């Protein structure tokens, strides 16, 4: 919701609005015009959307320019809801409404009997209020207990008790869709709506009228209806009924990030990190999540959400912050040892194939190690880590863990030129704090262990690299 107030110079009566040349414009026309303006000016209409620029967004833009209602189809955690919420940015910042009206009616185009009566009585003196675009986007999570009254409306017993007859259209308490008049209605998980409730949306989408308790109130509703659905829902929990699917002008498939950079971009944007997590570790987590999406032990029908990678990064950062508190080291920087906290904490966010019970952590640990090895291989390609391996083999054992500060880890090793190169490859300068350099060196040590050139001995609190 917007906390800002409308500019003071905006018209406050219907007469002043007419004189200012403001005329009613349909919500789809408004979005169409504002989207075209953004595209012509080279302004990004979709702030915060990562990885969709060549696939989903062009399809969505074509659908909106065509004036279509849209359903986004994709597995969980692909950014469908996030994308729908950006639609509000394509509405005019402020729009005029009849002050005090139940629906957001344009002062020059009232649609309810009560507003028409007020407009006839007051004429040019009809008071005008201004609505911010954030208040014109309405979101509803479809649940099986959603009723027709919730979405469309019902007879208001209080109004009937006041003496109005049941046939009086002013006895209706409007539901969510009519109250979104001149705005956007987003329904999340549309197949979860009972089929009889989906039927109630048919008239709204096609004929733009609403039917309540046996009589029809013809309201020329002006809404853009958008929805999300999981492809699995068609067979699992419910489905979008065929006539309703037919009324959506566009069905657009979303997807998980297609490349590593997009995966890292999503994590950078969405994760609230309480400590530094360097690019190499974010790369490890991105590869880990991509490995999970290709794994035959994970149920791919339910998907591996982008939220998994975000939660993994936040967990690793929290482990680094905890170590910083225990050792007093600043700044708090994540190291590869912090990755060990990921499988145990996050395995509950995944659905595994039947028959894999009890082996979940084993599978996750294997995929995580593979992600570390691939990242290290790419980071240190062409760099000879043999001097580092030889130093450890010659008795310079290196300990790491939740109570080992970076300074202590580095102090266990002799001065080696290769360590400066390792740090540089990880994007760390030679004059940076020990905690950052230690993160790079530990990645090199872990890669030597995974390549079976070093041994690793771990107990509850400490891990030691040795010959």
Q: How many separate structural domains?
A: 2
* Number of extended strands: 14
Can you tell me the CATH superfamily of the largest domain?
P-loop containing nucleotide triphosphate hydrolases
Return Rg in Å. 29 Å
Helix content: 40-55%
Spatial order of strands in the largest sheet: 4-7-10-1-11
Largest sheet: 5 strands, parallel
Distance N terminus to C terminus? 60 Å
Low-confidence parts: none
Count of helical segments? Answer: 19
Named CATH architecture of the largest domain: 3-Layer(aba) Sandwich
CATH topology (level 3) name of the largest domain: Rossmann fold
What's the mean pLDDT score? 88
Strand content: 5-15%
Any idea of the CATH class of the largest domain?
Answer: Alpha Beta
- Structural class category: alpha/beta
The geometry reads as elongated
Give an account of the 3D structure.
The chain has helices spanning 14-19, 27-41, 56-65, 80-86, 113-122, 148-151, 157-161, 176-179, 195-206, 242-247, 260-270, 279-294, 306-327, 341-346, 360-379, 386-393, 406-411, 417-425, 434-450, and strands at 70-73, 94-98, 128-132, 137-141, 153-155, 172-174, 183-188, 210-212, 215-217, 223-229, 250-253, 398-401, 455-458, 462-466. It is α/β, with parallel strands linked by helices. Strands 4-7-10-1-11 form a five-stranded parallel beta sheet. The longest helix is centred in the C-terminal third of the chain and has 22 residues, at 306-327.
């Amino acid at each position: 919701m917007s906390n800002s107030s409308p500019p003071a110079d905006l018209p406050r009566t219907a007469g002043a609005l007419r004189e200012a040349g403001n005329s009613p414009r349909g919500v789809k026309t408004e979005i169409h015009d504002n989207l075209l303006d953004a595209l012509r000016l080279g302004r990004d209409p979709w702030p915060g959307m990562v990885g969709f620029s060549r696939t989903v967004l062009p399809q969505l833009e074509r659908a909106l320019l065509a004036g279509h209602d849209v359903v986004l189809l994709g597995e969980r955690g692909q950014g469908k809801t996030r994308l729908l919420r950006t639609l509000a940015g394509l509405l005019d910042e402020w729009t005029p409404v009849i002050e005090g009206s139940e629906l957001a009616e344009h002062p020059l185009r009232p649609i309810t009997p009560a507003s028409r009566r007020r407009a006839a009585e007051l004429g040019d003196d009809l008071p005008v209020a201004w609505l911010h675009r954030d208040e014109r986007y309405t979101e509803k999570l479809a649940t099986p207990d959603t009723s027709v009254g919730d979405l469309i409306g019902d007879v208001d017993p209080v109004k009937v008790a006041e003496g109005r007859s049941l046939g009086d259209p002013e006895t209706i308490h409007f539901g969510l869709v009519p109250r979104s008049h001149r705005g956007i209605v987003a329904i999340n998980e549309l197949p979860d709506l009972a089929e009889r409730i989906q039927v109630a949306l048919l008239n709204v989408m096609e004929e733009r009228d609403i039917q309540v308790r046996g009589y029809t109130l013809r309201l020329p509703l002006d809404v853009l209806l958008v929805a999300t659905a999981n492809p699995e829902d068609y067979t699992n929990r419910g489905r979008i009924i065929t006539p309703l699917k037919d009324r959506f002008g566009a069905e657009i498939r979303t997807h998980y990030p297609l490349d590593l950079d997009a995966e890292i971009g999503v994590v950078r944007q969405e994760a609230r990190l309480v400590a530094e997590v360097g690019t190499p570790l974010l790369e490890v987590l991105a590869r880990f999540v991509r490995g999970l999406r290709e794994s035959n032990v994970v149920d791919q029908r339910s998907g591996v959400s982008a939220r998994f990678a975000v939660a993994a990064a936040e967990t690793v950062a929290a482990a680094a912050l905890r170590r910083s508190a225990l050792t007093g080291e600043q700044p708090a920087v994540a190291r590869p040892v912090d990755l060990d906290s990921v499988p145990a904490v996050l395995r509950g966010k995944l659905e595994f194939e039947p028959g894999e019970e009890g082996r979940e952590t084993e599978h996750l640990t294997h995929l995580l190690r593979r992600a570390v090895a691939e990242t290290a291989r790419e980071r240190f390609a062409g760099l000879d880590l043999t001097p580092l391996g030889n130093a450890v083999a010659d008795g310079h054992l290196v300990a790491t863990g939740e109570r080992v500060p970076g300074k202590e880890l580095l102090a266990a090793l002799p001065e080696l030129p290769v360590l400066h190169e390792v740090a540089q490859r990880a994007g760390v300068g030679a004059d940076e704090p020990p905690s950052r350099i230690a993160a790079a060196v530990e990645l090199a040590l872990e890669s030597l262990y995974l390549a079976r050139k070093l041994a690793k001995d771990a107990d509850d609190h400490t891990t030691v690299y040795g010959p």
